[in-house]
Amino acid sequence: MGDVRTEPPAADLVLQHQDIETAPEEVTVLVTGFGPFLAQFPINPSHEITKLLPTTLLPDPSEPTNPRIRLIIHPSPLPVAYHPTATIVPTILSARTPDLVLHLGLAAGRNYFALERSSVRIGYGRNKDVLGQRWTDVDSDRQWPSHLKAFTEGDGKLCSYPDRLATSLPFEDIWRRWRSLCADIEGVGDGTSSATYVTTISTPPHQTGVPIPPPAGAATSRPWNRVEVRPSDDVGSFLCGFIYWTTLAWFWALHQQKQKEDKEREYAGLQPEPQQPRRLAAPEDDGERPVLFLHVPGCPEERDLQRGKEITVAAIRAMVASWLGQKRRRANDFVV
Prior knowledge:
about 325 residues; alpha/beta; 8-stranded mixed β-sheet; two-stranded antiparallel sheet; 7 helices; globular; disordered N terminus; hydrolase; protease
């Protein structure tokens, strides 16, 4: 089904294009960290790093026209527990409505920082959380029904979820920007020699999170005074993967509901938001999920936390820059 529209005057077209490309004055980024985890981590470095972050990041002097970045730092550490996370995170997202989201979590045993690409819907029942509870596949089917088990809620909304969701942000571009920004941080490497084995295993979703051994001959340990930054697609099947999925799924559902409302308006013969440009969505477009997860290693000393803060700031700047670039590119596709 389509509709016939007359072409707008050239001057109006230029004005609307400029309006879309105009950068916002401020970009908001929600940042969270976790609380105590395991006996050896009574103080979780993921939350300790968020406490060190500034509330505002001014534009880089080399790009003075870029907007400032306001960090919405969740003041308390999130519990390393499934059911509270499933309740708290959507509440925060609905109340704060951030432009982007960055979750931080501890990867015990790792000696590198890793940005994660995706997470899965099921497979969280193998390990108990700090409350001694599990999140079963039945819980996932109830909270995020798959296309085979979708159900209609009391309010009539229908939403089904895939078994895996990835960030909609340009991941490779963010990785390149993050690596470049981290090059100026003392004692940080980019892990290019070993990043190839930080990937997702080709197994069913419940198997994700199984460590992948490094290739033969790869270094297995490094001095503690040096860390690496790496891209990864192995967020795991504990709370790190769970909070990442929960946020990705929240944005997924938001997009599904928006599509449903647009179709209802179209069927009713109504125009969605008259006089407002709309993106031309590609057939495979499944909405924006401007979310990333950052795995951090243990940070036993204050200097490690300070370096973790710098690495996190670099990740945030890379996220925002890539997101703005993505929006500018997409602004070329719109209708009146």
